[in-house]
Automatic annotation (TrEMBL):
Entries under PANTHER family matching the protein: POLY-BETA-1,6-N-ACETYL-D-GLUCOSAMINE SYNTHASE
Record EC number: 2.4.-.-
Superkingdom to which the source organism belongs: Bacteria
Record protein name field: Glycosyltransferase
Organism: Chungangia koreensis
GO molecular function: glycosyltransferase activity
Length: 450
């Protein structure tokens, strides 16, 4: 097994004590700061509102500007304030040795599954790892590659078969056989940092007894492939990571993603395993939250996944994510969640379709109008959201650099062009794709987990 020296920057128990700021205080203080920012935005945007009202009427103008500026500004301000106040609790143990089971659902993964298993074999985790690969109706050489790994790698690997297509079928088939206290799911194309499993289990072992899952950090492994993957690198490194940290701070990470997360086995079985849903990990997480359990996020438990390298693949993936969110909202209403923070976090998702529709159907056409000198919708006032966005990303960049990448001896790749394109154009792609996913789910179009 590989080992690394423990850096003083890691959140271990011996780290110097810091002033404790209660979660409730962080929550309301962040809301207060966000409210002040929104009030300032409303005050400064009065001329913009009045000018637009002359064109489309006051109620419609208010709905448009609220979707473009007021609400996104409030949410960004809340995010920034929360991230500035966030302090990850220290680990109580740094060398857990609990026996765990790792599930990998694989459908036509002959080119990736051996590599994924080899990275698991290099973990510095001192406990026993039972790796179960579930072949989900593959018609390539996935099984042969798993058998090669069984012969060549120094870890216990078991190969199961599930003919029913669907990731949830594969995972539930293996779940019946899991006897360990903890179960980890990893995608077949995911590579783990050598200490990733150890940090994931350490966070669970250091958490209160009502924590049912810990989501790992997922970053891109193929960011150098083309410009499209370079842009997504920043989404995973800054955008997705910032949301995960925010949700983890308030003990309600909304997606313990199937790509890399740890669960208490009994908690997964308690809610009936993975559901028949396109966003099976979203619905599973929300069901556990509904049971008044908490879900954490561990930024040091780093994994690397292949992101879509084509626009078509990207659209399919993000549309699935949007559909998964709608599935979760349909099954478990935010107001039915027992925890206050989770009510708020899931409630935000109720607003997301409205924001995406306004952005797609109003802001993008408004940008086109602005290019021809018509500033009814997009104008100088819309730039007020940009500084807060940059501040939030800068805050997370510093955190990721100093408290994640540096202790793990990782380097941030130089990708300035990808960063600029991410800031300038990414939302113009994401919102229409999300709207496409909402339409798919509304019309109940065919689903696919790949």
């Amino acid at each position: 097994m590989k080992s690394i020296s423990y850096s003083s920057d890691l959140p271990f128990k011996k780290r110097n004590r810091y002033f404790y700021f209660p979660i409730k205080a962080k929550f309301w203080f962040s809301h207060f700061g966000a409210f002040l920012w929104m009030c300032l935005s409303i005050y400064l945007a009065r001329p913009w509102l009045m000018n637009l009202a002359d064109v489309v009427s006051f109620p419609i103008a208010l709905m448009i500007i609220a979707g473009i500026s007021y609400i996104p500004g409030y949410m960004n301000a809340f995010l920034v304030m929360s991230l500035l106040l966030d302090r990850q609790p220290p680990f109580k143990t740094v060398t857990p040795n609990d026996e765990i089971t790792i599930l990998i659902a694989a459908h036509n993964e002959e080119n990736k599954i051996y590599r994924t298993l080899s990275y698991i074999a290099e973990q510095d985790y001192s406990g026993k790892m039972n790796v179960v690969v579930i072949n989900n109706n593959s018609n390539d050489k996935t099984c042969q590659e798993v058998l090669r790994a069984i012969d060549e790698l120094p870890i216990h690997i078991e190969l199961l078969h599930e003919l029913k297509p669907g990731k949830f079928h594969a995972l539930n088939h293996a779940l019946k056989l899991v006897k360990t206290l903890y179960v980890v799911t990893i995608d077949a194309d995911t590579m783990l940092h050598p200490s990733s499993i150890r940090f994931l289990v350490s966070r669970m072992k250091s958490s209160p007894s009502d924590v049912s899952a810990v989501a790992g950090a997922v970053l891109t492994q193929n960011s150098r492939e083309n410009m499209w993957t370079k842009i997504q690198e920043w989404d995973y490194f800054l955008g997705i990571a910032s949301i995960k940290r925010l949700q983890g701070l308030y003990q309600g990470t909304l997606v313990a993603q199937g790509a890399y997360s740890l669960y208490k086995t009994e908690c997964v079985k308690e809610v009936g395993g993975w559901p028949d849903a396109i966003g099976e990990d979203i619905v599973l997480t929300w069901r556990m939250l509904e049971k008044n359990r908490k879900v954490y996020f561990e930024p040091l438990a780093v994994s690397f996944t292949e992101v879509p390298s084509s626009f078509t693949h990207f659209v399919r993936q993000r549309a699935r994510w949007a559909r998964g969110m709608i599935e979760g909202l349909r099954e478990i209403k935010p107001w039915k969640q027992p925890q206050m923070y989770v009510k708020y976090l899931t409630g935000i998702n109720l607003v997301m379709p409205y924001l995406d529709i306004v952005y797609t159907c109003v802001w993008i056409p408004g940008l086109i109008l602005a290019l021809f000198g018509h500033y009814y919708i997009v104008g100088p006032m819309t730039l007020l959201v940009l500084p807060l966005t940059v501040v939030s990303y800068l805050t997370l960049y510093v955190y990721q650099r100093d408290y994640v990448f540096k202790p793990l001896r990782l380097r941030i790749r130089r990708n300035l062009v990808g960063f600029i394109l991410f800031i300038v154009s990414y939302q113009m792609l994401m919102s229409p794709v999300s709207v496409y996913g909402y339409v798919q789910e509304t019309l109940k179009l065919k689903r696919s987990w790949k």
